[in-house]
Each structure stands twice: as structure tokens, then as C-alpha cells.
Amino acid sequence: MAASKALEAQLARHFGERLLHSEVAHDQVTIEVAPDDLISMCVQLRDEAAFGFECLMDVCGVDYAAYGQTEWATEDSSATGFSRGVDRKLFNDTDAAVAGRRYAAVYHLLSLANNHRLRVRVYARDDQFPLLDSVTSVWSSADWYEREAFDLFGIVFDGHPDLRRLLTDYGFIGHPFRKDFPLSGHVEVRYDPDKGRVIYQPVSIEPRVLVPRVIRHDHRYEVQSPQEKSPDA
Questions:
Q1: CA angle, 131 then 24 then 104, to 5°
Q2: In degrees, to the nearest 5, what angle opens at C-alpha 101 toward C-alphas 85 and 61?
Q3: pTM surpassing 0.90?
Q4: What are 56-97's pLDDT values in tens digits?
Q5: C-alpha to C-alpha distance for 156 and 35, rounded to whole angstroms
Q6: Backbone CA torsion sign across 168, 174, 180, 186
Q7: N or C: which terminal CB in the chain sees fewer CB atoms within 10 Å?
């Protein structure tokens, strides 16, 4: 924890007001930067000897729609919302309600020389067309990571050399990791023996919602008083 706090202080001194937010959680530093500062700050994080983040380990897309509005709903099945456990220390509850705070990319950096890890989070300003600069010019490993975030979340990375879908099918419509994308999808595929090929058709399964924990009110979970307990209990 001491090393993470020291890194956070070092980042604050170096970047000043360009560092929009910083947090230490689980012994790792997370910083937030503005989209316009992303490339220049990433170059400094890579090239400055004090940081030395020469390795980009991952780029994760995030959809913060309805984030923090509902915690674990255990009494009833959550068929319409997006129930989740929320660590309110890491994010403001109002973040997802502010325009330009729905889609973000999170960059996971590693410094082998200094034995440091760092998360860099940047929000796309336009919720309707989330656009960020590509960091492939800084770390070549961003190529496939950015394609994944584009495919699953619809985040467009300006300057990417070959921004195509990576995991979904060629004719796939939509971005399956967005919160407003149905869990069962829009179409399903099957082999048609009459046509001799694979075809697309509307989803035939009924939507299901699985909750991680359901509280059941029956005798197995009722708390008995000492007088009610059996002597053999």
C-alpha cells in the first residue's frame, strides 16, 4: 500500500491538474484523465524513467449505464434493472447520470523496471457515438484490445490501423456488452438442411434472469429462539 500511495503522489506532482482523479484500491492506483490528454500522458507514462510503463496489459471497455442505482436485489428477481454490488468509494453515484460519463476505456499498465501497475480510465464525451484516440502508436499491443472494446461496447478508437470486429460474427448487429443489449440477443443461428447452410432467425428462447442470491422465507432460514430449539439440535 505504501508503494501505491507513493506512486499516486508522484503522478499527482508530475501531471498536476491534468490528473482529473486518482484512487488507491486493492493496492493499485487508478487515475482518470481527459480524452484530449490521453495520448500525451500515455507517452509520458511509458517514457519517463520514474514511471516506465512499457507494457500495456489490457484495454477494457466499460458501460456505466445505471451504475450505482441498484445494489444486489435479493428479495425479487431483477428482470428490468442491472443489479450489482457497488463500491461507492471508487465512483461517484452521479457519474452514470451525467452526459459523457457512460462509456469509458480502462488501460492496465505494467512497469517491469519499477514493479508498478496502474489503471488509466478515460471517458468518451459523446454517449451516442463514443470516440477515443487509439493508443496503438504508444503500445502496439493495443491493437486487438481496442478491437475487442469496439466490438463489445461500440467504442470507436480514432487512428486505429484496422478497427474491425474481433469476437462477434461478420454480420453481427449491435454491441453485446452494452447494458441495453438483451441478454439473449436479437437473433440465433442454426443449420437449415433444406437450404444446406447456416441461417439466422429470431431468438426462440424465453428471456431468463439469474440472480446470484435469493432470500427464501421458509423454516430453513427462520431464526428460532433458544426455547423453540430442540434439545437434539
A1: 10
A2: 70
A3: no
A4: 999 999 999 877 665 544 444 444 444 444 444 444 444 555
A5: 13
A6: negative
A7: C
Residue 172 dihedral angles phi and psi, to the nearest 5°: -65, 140
- The residues, ordered by sequence, that sit 6+ positions from 81 with a Cβ below 8 Å of its Cβ are 66, 69, 70, 73
Query: What would the CATH number be for the domain defined by 2-168?
Result: 3.30.460.80
Residue 211 in contact with residue 77, Cβ under 8 Å?
yes
Amino acid occupying residue 59? V
Using CA atoms, how far apart are residues 152 and 174, in angstroms rounded to an integer?
8
Please write down the HEC assignment for all residues of the chain: CHHHHHHHHHHHHHHHHHEEEEEEECCEEEEEECHHHHHHHHHHHHHCCCCCCCEEEEEEEEECCCCCCCCCCCCCCCCCCCCCCCCCCCCCCCHHHCCCCCEEEEEEEEECCCCEEEEEEEECCCCCCCEEECCCCCCCCHHHHHHHHHHHHCCEEECCCCCCCCCCCCCCCCCCCCCCCCCCCCEEEEEECCCCEEEEEECCCCCCCCCCCCCCCCCCCCCCCCCCCCCCC
Domain ranges of the chain: 2-168
* Grid cell digits, residue 129: 457515438
